[in-house]
Amino acid sequence: MISTFLRLIDRIFPPKSIYAHCDIPCGIYDPHLAQVAAHTVIRMTNMIKSLEASSENPDFEERKKTISQISRLTAVKEEHAELVKHEIRILWGDYFKPVFVKEYPNLHELVSETMRLASTSKQELDEQAANNLLESVQKIAEVFWKTKGVDTVKVKTTYPSEKEIVVPKQTE
Amino acid sequence: MEPLIKEGQGVLINRLAYLFSQPKVSDIVALNAPNIPNKLLLKRVEKVLKNNKYIVVGINKVDSTDSRKFGWVSSKDILGKIWLKY
C-alpha cells in the first residue's frame, strides 16, 4: 500500500537517482610498490658505490666487467626511480582527492619532493638522495593509510638495503 | 548493495536522521559521491573515525567503489539515513 503510494508520488515528482553500485570494481591502491622500488634505488646506489678496482690500472677484461656491472646496476636504479614516480603519480592523480590535501597540507610538497628526489637518484649517484627518497615515500604511505583510517607501523625489512617499510598496523 | 536493495527500487532517505546525532557503524547512508558533482551513493558505515569522518563501504565489497577507493568521507557529505525501501 505504502509502496504503491510512493510509486505514485514518484510519477508526479520524479526522485533523484542514487547509486548503490560501482562504476568500476577497482579500489586497488597501495603505496607498497613505491616503497619497494625506493629500497631498490638505495640498494643499487650502494652496490655501484661499493665497486672497487683490483688495482690502479686494472686490465681490459676487468674494465669490461666493471663497465658491464655499472651499466646494469644503473639501468635498474633508474628503472626503479622511475617506478617510484609512476606509483606516486597514480596515488596523486587517482586516489588523493582535494579534501585530503586540505587535511594534510604538506601532501602537495611531499609528492613534489618525492618526484625531485627520484629524479636526483636517477641522474646522480647520491646515497643521501636515495635515502631521502625512501623517507619521503614512507611519509606518503603514512598519509595514504591515515586517509583510510588505518594506523601504520614502520617495520624493519629483510632487504639488503637494511631500511624500514611502512605497513598497516595489524589489529587483534 | 544487492540483495539489500535491488536495482530500480525506491528508497526514502531520512535527511533529519543526523540532525542531533552522528552516523553509527552499520547505518546505511546516502552521501555525495566524492569528486563527482550531483551523484549520490548509498553505502554502509563501516568505521567511525575522529573529527566526523567515516569509512563507508558497499555491501558487495568485491564490486563496490567505496572508501577503499576514495578514502574517508566527512559528515557534511552524508545526507541522511535510509528510512524505507519500496
UniProtKB/TrEMBL annotation, chain A:
InterPro entries: NiSOD_sf, Superoxide_dismutase_Ni-type
Domain of life: Bacteria
UniProt-listed Gene3D superfamilies: Nickel-containing superoxide dismutase (1.20.120.400)
MF terms in GO: nickel cation binding; superoxide dismutase activity
NCBIfam families: sodN
Protein name (database record): Superoxide dismutase, Ni
Organism of origin: Candidatus Woykebacteria bacterium RBG_16_39_9b
Automatic annotation (TrEMBL), chain B:
An annotated Gene Ontology molecular function: serine-type endopeptidase activity
Domain Peptidase S26, chain residue ranges per copy: 1-45, 48-83
The organism's place on the tree of life at top rank: Bacteria
Family matches, as InterPro entries: LexA/Signal_pep-like_sf, Peptidase_S26
Single GO biological process annotation from the record: signal peptide processing
Annotated transmembrane regions: none
Name of the protein: Peptidase S26 domain-containing protein
Native organism: Candidatus Woykebacteria bacterium RBG_16_39_9b
